[in-house]
Amino acid sequence: MTMKRTTGESVFNVVNIVLLGILALLTVYPFLYTVSISMSNAREAARDGLHLVPGDPAMLGRALENLFRFRFTGFRDGLSAYGQGLSLEAYRMVLVNREIIVGYANTLFRTVVGTILTLLATALAAYPLSRPNMPFRKRLTFFVIFTMLFNGGLVPGYLLIRNLGLINSLWVYVLPTLVTAFNVLIMKSFFQSIPESLAESAMIDGANDFSILFRIYLPLSKPVLATVGLWTAVTHWNSWFDGLLFVTDSSKQVLQIILRRIVIENSTEMVEKGIMNPNVLDFTPDTIKAATVVVTILPILFVYPFAQKYFVKGVMLGSVKE
Amino acid sequence: MNSRHRGLLLMFLIPFLLLVVFNYVPMYGIVLAFKDFRMSDGIFGSRWTGLETFRRLFLGPDFLKVLRNTITISVLKLITGFVAPIVLALMLNELRLKRYKLAVQTLSYLPYFFSWVILGGILKLLLSPGGPVNSLLVSLHLGAIPFLTDNTWFIVTLVVTAVWQSVGYGAVIYLAAISGISPTLYEAAMVDGAGRWRQTLHITLPSLVPSMVVLFILSLGGILNAGFDQIYNLYSPVVYRTADIVDTYVLRQMFAMDFSLAAGAGLFKSVVGLALIVGTNIVANRISRGEQGLW
């Protein structure tokens, strides 16, 4: 197929490419800035500027200029001069902080245990609703969907958690969200796409519904398990409101709440500890905040390339009209 | 009922109980809004007060202000959050460089993967008086802007950062719809001499209408959700005048132990949300003769 290109169209093409490039840069800039600040020394972090790279960009530029001109000693000296502007002291303080370590462990717990149990509970809800011979199928499906449309609100939810004795328990992070309508509907529609004959022939062989679900359906459902699982994991990693509301015991707190105290509420505790520690000098409140942010988002960045493949699928599954 | 049914029902039992306990039992708690709730008396023991809570709510100094703020912020976000992903999807669709397109798209939904605690923390560093955005503005002689502490600028910040967080995610849905359009439509249009602009206008855009309707209904149902996570992690008392919303108000009333008032405001919000989503769905069904509603 040949396409006739008018001048107007090629101008549009160039403008479109440039605009989208700028947009992409603007989107990631806040993250670049945070990483840069977190790895700069106190003097560099306090300097005005855009901070696209950690430390002093002029120094880095001079070093690279030497490299391109094949002046290797100049390059080495330039690099070590640039290195003066870098500092990992903020990370050293963040990574030895007890609250952050405990928060990390609790967040890891809710992410792993929460995701596994959510997948299990979701499958147990989705499979019966996907079977044509399920009694009260329509009514039970509505029973699930209704929770999307209406809820009791914050106060009754809080009182329920209190009455169940889940305040300051790690299970408060996991149990309330095990079954959510959205996940159930996604998995149900996937199950419905599996050929009926598979279940029928297994039944003739005497298999019951539990073994059909676990031996036939779930092994065939890896895409939907990955989609729901990854979303659940990211949601757990990011959750903070339940920690704020239901947990006062600092040994049960999640990472996001610790992060919130440091970056949103400006808790200066860690800065004060740093000042009292003669081994750690090269930091500012901002470098500590930035380092805490980086430590929190790192795991998400690791799964991101993997997750985004399923992410698109999940969005599409989710937007399918019931 | 034979044993086959028993197996399925047994399987559904655990999810059923979880939904009852965590989703349906709290619905009973809405009676709190009609009682003078005291922790020591419990939900059952507290005194009935009829509509007293709602009288306090609507005649009190704050709730109407909070409601107005919520709707203002929501409507602004609804418009920008509706248009921006469509524009981004159309722009991405026009990119012929496949790898570049993938790269831009991948970067564009990065912020969607982070909580507003993380994004709020980053934005506070970025938008502070001594931060890079303001130092850039100052060096361009534009003057510093109090993004987070001025009542008007704060709303602008909310709207812009909400687009930043969700535009890439929103665009994915439209790109999926675009990829489902039959290429023969474009070929036929080209034979008729339509350029790319007219193809976009007469083929791409109309085929996105079903997705637009669904997303619009969903966002209209959430009109009283002005974005709790975002606002709670960015606001401060100096911007309460324009940025205090129903959800932040409910939370503060709860922390102040006024459970009945908090429950009343929460119930009001839930009922309005339900009515809006059911209402818009009826309208969408009627206009499209049953083709474009959610159910």
Topology:
The complex is a heterodimer of chains A (322) and B (295).
Chain A: H1 7-38, H2 42-46, H3 57-68, H4 72-83, H5 89-95, H6 98-130, H7 137-149, H8 154-163, H9 181-192, H10 196-204, H11 209-220, H12 222-238, H13 241-246, H14 255-264, H15 269-276, H16 285-319
Helix pairs in contact in A: 1-16, 3-4, 5-16, 6-9, 6-12, 6-14, 7-9, 10-11, 12-16, 14-16
Chain B: H1 3-28, E1 35-36, H2 42-45, E2 47-48, H3 52-59, H4 63-94, H5 98-108, H6 116-127, H7 132-139, H8 151-179, H9 183-191, H10 196-207, H11 209-221, H12 228-234, H13 240-243, H14 246-255, H15 259-287
Antiparallel strand pairs in B: 1-2
Helix pairs in contact in B: 3-15, 4-8, 5-8, 6-12, 11-15, 14-15
Written description of the protein model:
The complex is a heterodimer of chains A (322) and B (295). Chain A has helices spanning 7-38, 42-46, 57-68, 72-83, 89-95, 98-130, 137-149, 154-163, 181-192, 196-204, 209-220, 222-238, 241-246, 255-264, 269-276, 285-319. The model of chain A has no long low-confidence stretch (mean pLDDT 89). Chain A has 322 residues and is mainly alpha-helical. The radius of gyration of chain A is 26 Å and the shape is globular. Chain A is built from 16 helices and no strands. Chain B is mostly helical. Chain B has one domain: Orthogonal Bundle (MetI-like fold), CATH 1.10.3720.10. Chain B has helices at 3-28, 42-45, 52-59, 63-94, 98-108, 116-127, 132-139, 151-179, 183-191, 196-207, 209-221, 228-234, 240-243, 246-255, 259-287, and strands at 35-36, 47-48. A two-stranded antiparallel sheet of chain B has the order 1-2. In chain B, helix 3 crosses helix 15, helix 5 crosses helix 8 (151-179) and helix 11 (209-221) runs antiparallel to helix 15. Chains A and B meet through helix 1, helix 6, helix 7, helix 8 and helix 11 of A and helix 1, helix 4, helix 5, helix 6 and helix 7 of B.
